[in-house]
Amino acid sequence: MIETAAARALAEQLRQVEDRLGRLLISGWRQARAEAAELRHEADQLAEAGLPELAARVRVVAEASDPAEVLKAIALATSACRLLRVRLPAAPQGWTPLTPASKARRARTEALVPISRLLLDGREVWVCARPNRNEMLLVEPPFPEAEPAEPAAAVAEATGVFGRLRRQIAQALAGETNAPSHWLNRRLAGTLRWQAQYPLGVQGDVGYWTLEDPSWVTGQDEQNGLRVIQEVLSTGRQQDGALLFWNSGGFRIRELDRLDPASYVWLDPSTAEAFGQAPSAKLWAIVWMEGTAVVPVALLTLGGLVSPPRLTHLIPGTPEDVLVRPTG
Asked: For 256-278, how does the pLDDT look when each residue is reduced to its tens digit (9 = 90+)?
């Protein structure tokens, strides 16, 4: 006989699988391939729970190769999940306990690298990298972004090319320094929950996620590849097309032309508008490469002997953040 607590936990797990299958139908097959791949993890958990037949049906969805095949697989997997779930609260006598999992069944914790802020359909999202999978993700901000405590006059002066230049000169002469931000500096951990998929022109798509139980990763990890790019950005010497992460080819540093916005793919009209406010025609940027498509996600001001590198977010107002400069 299955225990009540175990039945409830399994019913919730089945409900989550059903929700994921339902989102696949809503998104469409082309936009939902990344979500389908995540179902392999769900299938592994079901197999560990002693449900190999159901796990096999879920795995078929992840491995489907065309829309007709995936539609049939989703229908069978959804039906199997619902039939099992409705029977769990009233399990008949004689049922044997579920096979204990060989390891704790819990959602995977992912380590992401926050890169920049963008607007998407009027709401702010964080552009994050999952370098070990060579992926770009759009994540609902897990923490509120602190607003800079600047006087209103300073903000007004900073609008426009010469206003921003005067502000930067005044900061340098006054010895003003800002603490490095978390962008390209700290890794963010949490459990990803897929919400939607957005197209990147005709080249591909990108997922929009929420992050449950978010936290900043503590301690230094030289394997995350961040120190290398921090040193490169601080020297002011850059090569067009350089990789942002040594183990991921999607994010690159490119020299872009502000006067040719049609050459790039924009996630949101506000991103293109912010790009058009750049102070010079030629500028450095962090981009995501999706096939031959170039998707700008942030602008860069390379560092020098006395100034740290800066990152400009492509959102209204084009706010800047100081990037870390490695020491030692």
From this structure: 999 999 999 999 999 999 999 99
- The bridge status of strand 242-245 relative to strand 204-216 is unpaired
Burial bucket for residue 218 (CB in 10 Å: 0-12, 13-18, 19+): exposed
Which pTM does this prediction carry?
0.62
* Neighbour-count burial for 291-305, b at 16+ CB within 10 Å, e otherwise: eebbbbbbbbbbbee
Tokens of 71: 């539609």
Distance between CA atoms of residues 71 and 29, nearest Å: 9
Kindly report each contact of residues 84-91 with a partner whose C-beta sits within 8 Å and lies 24 or more positions away, as own/partner: 84/14, 84/51, 84/54, 85/11, 85/14, 85/15, 85/18, 88/2, 88/7, 88/8, 88/10, 88/11, 89/7, 89/11, 91/1, 91/2, 91/7
pLDDT in tens, 72-107: 888 888 888 888 877 765 544 454 545 544 444 445
